[in-house]
Design brief:
The complex is a heterodimer of chains A (245) and B (252).
Chain A: E1 4-13, E2 16-26, E3 31-36, H1 42-48, E4 57-62, E5 65-67, H2 74-83, E6 84-87, H3 99-109, H4 115-128, H5 144-156, E7 162-166, H6 174-189, E8 193-197, H7 201-207, E9 210-215, E10 218-223, H8 225-230, H9 235-244
Parallel strand pairs in A: 3-8, 3-9, 6-7, 7-8
Antiparallel strand pairs in A: 1-2, 1-4, 4-5, 9-10
Helix pairs in contact in A: 3-4, 3-5, 4-5, 5-6
Chain B: E1 15-17, E2 27-29, H1 39-77, H2 82-94, H3 98-108, H4 118-143, H5 147-155, H6 160-190, H7 202-213, H8 216-247
Helix pairs in contact in B: 1-2, 1-4, 1-6, 1-7, 2-4, 3-4, 4-6, 5-6, 6-8, 7-8
Chain lengths: 245, 252
Amino acid sequence: MPLVSTRRLHKFFGRNHVLRGIKLDVEESEVIAIVGRSGSGKSTLLRTLNGLENIDDGTIEVDGTVLQVDHDDPGALRALRQKVGMVFQQFNLFPHLSTGQNVTLAPRVVKRTPREEAEDIARRMLERVGLGEKFDAFPDQLSGGQQQRVAIARALAMSPKVLLCDEITSALDPELVNEVLSVVRQLADEGMTLIMVTHEMRFAREVSDRLVFMHEGRIHESGSPQEMFSNPTTPEFASFIGSLN
Amino acid sequence: MPSCRQTFDPRAALVRPACAAGRRARFVVMAYQFDFTFVPDYAGMLAQGVVYTLGLTVVGGTLGILIGIGGALSRTWDTRPFGELFRYYVELFRNTPFLVQLFLIFFGLPSLGIKLAGWQAAILAMVLNLGAYSTEIIRAGLQATPRGQIEAADSLALTRWQIFLHVMLRPALRKVWPALSSQVVITMLGSSVCSQIAAEELTFVANFIQSRNFRAFETYFLTTALYFALALLVRQAMHLVGRYLIVRRPSP
């Protein structure tokens, strides 16, 4: 049984039909890269998976928790969010909290983890992203790449079943991209289930188990990245990868 | 020397008609002799007035800001029925004079069987007045929370209340703290009208002394200086409170 599963997902922004029936199954430990032109609905799809965008039709199920169309059960929504971590393009760290406090906040207030234990977890997660010594630093004292790694540690501290990454290197200076990507690569190697929207085609090709190409609100083509890049089956995907070079 | 004699009135001492009726009035600006010899006699009273005013400010400021936080929260999330209630409250208190609010509480409420002592009415009026203004000030700070931070907190499964408490409140207060400090100072200065309901704050004491010694200029000169010093003190205190409560960051 897949860890994440969506059926006939529909989403409108006003009259704009952004998602037109998405069926997506993600197995445990699978790494999915969602690519496509801007406006194809890839970020929206990612944001529906933890309820940041509500959906107009269809079902989302993550590890047995089902998300309703109108989010009328805040308890279920939060239960789902505890299983789905998310990392954003703009890092979105809490500027008034130190790195350590950023990472311990959710375990402490959501899971009621005692302070010492939460700090232990936080230190381990910060070690994991290579920032063990930055526990007491504040976000504005860190580089963009470091902030994004803290954001990853913050999401990991809730031990999510799946991690969503929404263009997490797009706001970074080019020389900082790799330090973030290598953390993601390491997570993938450790068996973390990852769903990422990315513009880093080479990275998507190297790391992902499955590439999903979105076009006009639908999953237009998907499959193994090697296969897809060497043998695109749809003209849209062929033109998309053609436009990258 | 003026040709016609007049009884001494200190209030007319600076500029006074040099002559009696019948002639064209001539105004002579006179050199004024300050006389502060009364101060030692009234020092205790003035000190009490200062403490009273400070007390009104501390209690009014603290409770007023707490109401402001609650009001801003209700208005930001439009929690029923509080969001709507706070909207009317804020409009009512921001669009009427403080003195009238004070009279309404002190002279009006007894008709409903609520009798308040002068100090109680003064505190209530100050709390309600500051509460209304700080609701709007703090609301502006809450609304300036970047959307991404709320989304990040949402994605970490925090409840709305937890997001307010842990993510929104402190940065919001930090942003508006200077405006809030000014409002507290304005409210403290406004507390001088509480003398009108016999709350024994600084202005009340000044009025009393002036009615005894007829040295209006000196008395209000001194009172002005005291208010000025108090305002600086309150501003500084707000600055320290802000630094301790809101920024609280270890040195790097």
